[in-house]
Amino acid sequence: PSLVRRFYPRADGIVAVSDSAADDLAEFSRIPRERIAAIWNPVVTPSLLARMAESPEHPEWVDGDSPVVVTAARLAPQKDLETLLQAFARLRARREARLLVLGEGRSRPTLERSVRDLGLANDVRMPGRVANPLPYLKRSAAFALSSIYEGFGNVLVEALASGCAVVSTDCPGGPREILGSGRYGRLVPVGDPAALARGLEDALDSPPDPATLQRRAQDFSIERIAQAYLDLPLA
């Protein structure tokens, strides 16, 4: 902290990845907020779109008659996947659905126990890390993010680029900005399984236009973000 407060003010320009992150940096560093620009991450690139068009290595994970809800996250407390499992249990009690959890981490034993305790063993798949998660987003009915906080949330942009309906916690960080305050995806309170379940059910019942989501994703293209850096006023 002392080095940040000493050296950051000497920079000609200071950039954070979201307005929320910029607010936090200003408070932490004691730098005037107006000196900190917010420029989003350049998530959408030609390589991302090419990888998204690939066939999934395990198509059976997303094939079938019942809709698939997918998430991609470290299995860690920050991601609050326990709330997602509880929400999915509520959703599953009302309709056919499956949950695909892509990612690995130290919370796996706890989450696997919750899957069993909630009676979801036949409907939840946790295969760990996959080389390319993007085709699974493209072929799922909804993407869920249950985090307690995020710096930005690249995976939300990836979900938008895939045309997948998005439901996210309205956590500190980038989700509200990425989703246009709810215009491009449903925002629900942090740590609220009932609200997350309702959001997922709404997304499955009334999916958004994929083309609208994909157009929003272009706001995070490498071309637009690079231009934002080129336009950054320097001291």
State the main characteristics:
235 residues; alpha/beta; six-stranded parallel beta sheet; two-stranded parallel sheet; 11 helices; globular
Short description:
This protein is 41% helix and 14% strand.
Describe it.
The chain is α/β, with parallel strands linked by helices. It is built from 11 helices and 8 strands. The protein has helices at residues 2-7, 19-29, 46-52, 81-94, 108-117, 134-138, 154-162, 175-178, 193-205, 210-217, 222-230; strands spanning 14-16, 36-38, 68-72, 98-102, 124-128, 142-145, 165-169, 186-188. It has a 6-stranded parallel beta sheet with strand order 5-4-3-6-7-8, with helices on both faces. The longest helix has 14 residues, at 81-94. The protein is globular, with a radius of gyration of 19 Å. The mean pLDDT is 96.
Protein topology:
Blueprint: H1 2-7, E1 14-16, H2 19-29, E2 36-38, H3 46-52, E3 68-72, H4 81-94, E4 98-102, H5 108-117, E5 124-128, H6 134-138, E6 142-145, H7 154-162, E7 165-169, H8 175-178, E8 186-188, H9 193-205, H10 210-217, H11 222-230
Parallel strand pairs: 1-2, 3-4, 3-6, 4-5, 6-7, 7-8
Helix pairs in contact: 4-9, 7-10
Report the uncertain regions. Answer: none
The largest sheet has its strands arranged as 5-4-3-6-7-8
According to DSSP, the number of beta strands is 8
pLDDT averaged over residues: 96
Q: How large, in whole angstroms, is the Cα Rg? A: 19 Å
Shape: globular
| Helix residue percentage | 40-55%
User: Between the first and last Cα atoms, what is the distance in angstroms?
Assistant: 23 Å
Helix/strand-derived class? Answer: alpha/beta
Structure annotation, total helices: 11
Report the sheet with the most strands, covering strand number, pairing sense and barrel closure: 6 strands, parallel
* Run of helices and strands: HEHEHEHEHEHEHEHEHHH
Strand content: 5-15%
